[in-house]
Amino acid sequence: MDASERHVPVMLERVVALLAPALAQPGAVLVDATLGLGGHSEAFLQQFPDIRLIGLDRDPAALRLAGERLAPYEDRTTFVKAVYDELPEVLEDLGVPAINGILFDLGVSSMQLDEADRGFAYAQDAPLDMRMDSTGPTTAADILNTYSSADLARILFQYGEEKFSRRIADRIVREREAEPFTNSARLSELVRDSIPQAARRTGGHPAKRTFQALRIEVNGELEVLRRALPNALRSLALHGRIVVMSYQSLEDRIAKQTLAAGTKTDVPDDLPVIPAGHEPYLQILTRGAERPTEEELAANPRAASVRVRAAERVRVKGMVVR
Ligand SMILES: C[S@@+](CC[C@H](N)C(=O)[O-])C[C@H]1O[C@@H](n2cnc3c(N)ncnc32)[C@H](O)[C@@H]1O
């Protein structure tokens, strides 16, 4: 299977429409912060023949596949292996002072989920790895075999919103004494057995929340996103636009709060006028979080949990726009 067959880009038309006004002028720079299999990027390169695309991914396998798919656009594309909070350094290295659009399509790619041996999928037995970049220092097995029960419970509760986090964490610590964790099937079974019968029937696969929590911890996903979004906003040129597609509520909350902060002024409420330089610098383009249409949901199950937020930079403010 090649890259284009494996992945249907989520909310493609809407994402293109949201970024389009920022990409109208020749030479506009679009950053795809989560290149994945290059599905969104391909559509932008096709529809905007004058843009330059910078594609980032922390997963070398994704960069390789996207590179093959986007080879026809070689003269307008640059691919960089980077974690997306490294954007300022990447732009500096490339000598790009400001960008016109940026897309974050968060989470794992369909390729990462489909490759069972990377351990992202709870439904298949595989080594408990879950690193998006397989040169990263910590695997899911390392976390399960070394964290204290309290730390495991905290992760499961905060990142997985798992109600039975303490029970699961205690059981992990008990069972690893007998034998360290290596594979996902044993963990899935443990989670199922730790949850009361009645709770097993709701909320999807019982291990889903635990796997999500481990993946977030392995890849430091939320801290990276918290740093990355303000960096991205700082890099936007005037009238540049950002689109963030989240697949779980913790990411969406970070996106919502970061974008909302840019629409507020930092002067006290009782000041009659907002002094120059203190005006809000962002305008939100989406009403709440946008969701896919019924048709898309029927055709593309991977779109089921997506929430899309977008904003435009409307002022340079005191921030450095080079
Ligand atoms: C949902 S996929 C993107 C799919 C892409 N929009 C497409 O149409 O093919 C998300 C990608 O982002 C990458 N990724 C996730 N977190 C990242 C981070 N912090 N820095 C860089 N890449 C990241 C993953 O490795 C994955 O390839």
Automatic annotation (TrEMBL):
Molecular-function GO terms, alphabetical: rRNA (cytosine-N4-)-methyltransferase activity
UniProt cross-references to InterPro entries, sorted A to Z: RsmH, SAM-dep_MeTrfase_MraW_recog, SAM-dependent_MTases_sf
Compartments (UniProt record): Cytoplasm
Entry GO terms, CC: cytoplasm
EC number, as in UniProt: 2.1.1.199
SUPFAM superfamilies, per the entry: Putative methyltransferase TM0872, insert domain, S-adenosyl-L-methionine-dependent methyltransferases
Alphabetical UniProt keywords: Cytoplasm, Methyltransferase, rRNA processing, S-adenosyl-L-methionine, Transferase
Residues involved in S-adenosyl-L-methionine binding: G38, G39, H40, D57, Y84, D105, Q112
GO biological process assignments: rRNA base methylation
Reactions that this protein is recorded to catalyse: cytidine(1402) in 16S rRNA + S-adenosyl-L-methionine = N(4)-methylcytidine(1402) in 16S rRNA + S-adenosyl-L-homocysteine + H(+)
Function: Specifically methylates the N4 position of cytidine in position 1402 (C1402) of 16S rRNA.
Family to which the UniProt record says this protein belongs: Belongs to the methyltransferase superfamily. RsmH family.
The name this protein goes by in its record: Ribosomal RNA small subunit methyltransferase H
